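User: Hey, quick favor. My workstation is busy. Could you predict this chain's structure for me?
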Amino acid sequence: MSKSREMDTLADAASPEKLARVAHELGCRSVAYTYNDPAIFMEYAADVATACREYGIKSVAVTAGYMCDEPRREFYRHMDAANVDLKAFSEDFYWKICGGHLQPVLDTLVYLKRETSVWFEITTLLIPGENDTDAELEALTQWVVENLGSDVPLHFTAFHPDWKMTHHSPTPPSTLSRARRIAVKNGVRYAYTGNVHDEKGGSTYCHACNRKLIGRDWYALGVWNLDAEGCCSACGAPCAGVFEAKPGTWGARRRPVRLRQYAA
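Assistant: No problem, here it is.
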């Protein structure tokens, strides 16, 4: 490695303290741990989360939820929120497609609900012919309501063919809408469609009066009918979630960050 390349690498070294400080300087309200699953770098994520808390910055895990009990308890002690992939609702899918098992993921979801204050949401990527039947969607959504309650948000997202699954077709928007209808029918208050432009399916509605509370089209926010306490401005019913007093304006923009730009 050349001397200049080596210096660049050292300048971009991401110690937990440096990541937290740079996030603070950029005005970040939270840091997400994703790509790959933070279970792979659990100790590092925990150290970053600890450093972030010194600045009041929240930590969000984006994860498959596949963990044993002891590391699960240690890891989520450091997290403020999580988005957990419930990849399907069949052991056959988990074993055939993922090389894993369904029950540990269900155990993580139940643990988060019953034993932590972590705000969490669930995402299920619907793959045509693999996990998108009415029967499976009925079973999945019924389990969520019975074991986690009606207020846990459930996102149904579109699959796009890639890598080892190019033989499958993209998920039709109608499949996502069907899944959302089944979820709402079974008592899920906050069911969403994702990876598609679907303002209706991506928006949040009041569970009491059905007023649109938050309008969304992918990353763009539209109407905002929550008061400063996160309640419906029409009927006063609380909307489950963690909210700022006002909506953000960042939208779909991206901002690459090079740590070398910031002092060590």
